[in-house]
Amino acid sequence: MASKIILDNSTTGQITINNVAVTTASVDSAFSLSNSNANNLYNLAANTLNTSFVNLKSGLSSPNWAYVNSTSTKRSQFMSAYRAMTEQVRTQISYQGYFTTAAGSYPGTSAYYGGVLLQDGRVFMVPFNATFARIYNPTTDSNTTPSGSYAMAGGWWGGVLMRDGRVYMCPYNSTTARIYDPATDTLTTPNGTFPGGAAHVGGVLLPDGRVYISPAGGTNGTVGRIYDPTSNTLTTTAALFPSTTSSNCGCCLTLDGRVLHAPFNSTSLYVYDPVANSTISFTAGGTGAFRGAVLLPDGRNYVIPSSSTTGRIVDIASIVISSIPNANPSGLTYAHIGGVVTADGRVFCTNQNAPSPSIFDPITLTTIYLSSLISVTANSFSSSVLLKDGRVFMVPQNSTSAKIYTPRTVTVPDSIVLSPFLNKF
């Protein structure tokens, strides 16, 4: 059984193993694995890990997670810490992990599309067809129904954690957004009107603290929208996106603070620059090709295959897109729907029609299904959320229960797990 590793959020970046603090000087010999077949020592220089977190936290406003993408320097320091953490965790003995069923019941029937990790570690689930939200508490293994009513079929898809801890819900069919405040358990409707009619899917927190809402294509989704929580105003991007129905599905930040869109029915992958208010595009996509994208620890982005049999890795720095074979081993249409990067740097891909979730390894460029661990009915889950303890929470879509995947026990620092780079649809 692997040791429990805690990467402390303190300014010292202290590392704790099995509740025992380890100094930098002794960390190489102290990091060990207890396993019936092996007893391996960690060889990664702990100075790299400690220094990375100290540098990242230095000069950040509070809460620190909300500002890791605020400047090019902080983005670089974030990537150093992110990479050091995943390299450290990856040195553990590799195993596939296991699944458990979380406590609580859910309504099913496309109830929730997307989840957001709150500052206190709970998971807020965004209502799609459900008339109420749900919040899962991984510490107590319990789910609760927060205040607020959502009377809209297909109302919202995806959410964004804002700097003040509130959750902004991105309108799909709804003509207005919603904001949930977990501190006061209140639901409000911010200013701004949306076109509705499947206009937007997902969003991200921009480097300046505004919320970017990703266009989904069709006649109503050819432009992105940006919500400013300071002025409570909504603006429209100058950049135009394809009018193809369901052209995009989800987005994520790039290493330099731009927004990469996952092409679903679009034949081009678009990257939006919030500073220049413009886009660039690359040839990539097709019919139902991709859903969701993530930022890898090496600074590249992985675009998750839906119906495509190949994945895509986008190197935004050199403007190169690489095709990854066998990323959808089942060859099924709509195999995956988004994913998250786990603490060891691998990508957990939420299954839609695939027989189980899959794991993509960006180092070996291989994808494996976890069908030996779990069998999942199609359309059971809509997305996944990385928890603070390194587990992965699967957000129920048609399923009446939630699942949790445990790859290993690692407490992930707030500056990483809550960051706009990871905490998004």
Architecture blueprint of SSEs:
Blueprint (H helix, E strand, L loop, with lengths): L4 E3 L7 E3 L2 E3 L4 H4 L15 H12 L14 H19 L7 E4 L10 E6 L5 E5 L6 E4 L4 E3 L11 E6 L5 E5 L6 E4 L4 E3 L11 E6 L5 E5 L7 E6 L4 E8 L7 E6 L5 E5 L4 E6 L4 E6 L6 E6 L5 E5 L5 E5 L4 E5 L11 E6 L5 E5 L6 E4 L4 E4 L11 E6 L5 E5 L6 E4 L3 E2 L2 H4 L8
Helix pairs in contact: 2-3
How would you characterize the overall build of this protein?
- The longest helix has 19 residues, at about 70-90.
- A hairpin with a 6-residue loop joins strand 30 (about 390-395) and strand 31.
- Helices cover about 10% and strands about 35% of the residues.
- It is built from four helices and 32 strands.
- Mean pLDDT is about 85; it is low at about 1-45.
- It has about 425 residues and is mainly β.
- The protein has helices at about 25-30, 45-55, 70-90, 415; strands at about 5, 15, 20, 100, 110-115, 125, 135, 140-145, 155-160, 165-170, 180, 185-190, 200-205, 210-215, 225-230, 235-240, 250-255, 260-265, 270-275, 280-285, 290-295, 300-305, 310-315, 320-325, 335-340, 345-350, 360, 365-370, 380-385, 390-395, 405, 410.
- The strands form eight sheets. A four-stranded mixed sheet has the order 3-2-1-32, with no helix packed on it. Strands 4-31-30-29 form a four-stranded antiparallel sheet, with no helix packed on it. Strands 5-6-7-8 form a four-stranded antiparallel sheet, with no helix packed on it.
- The relative contact order is 0.14.
- The chain starts with a strand and ends in an 8-residue tail after the last helix.
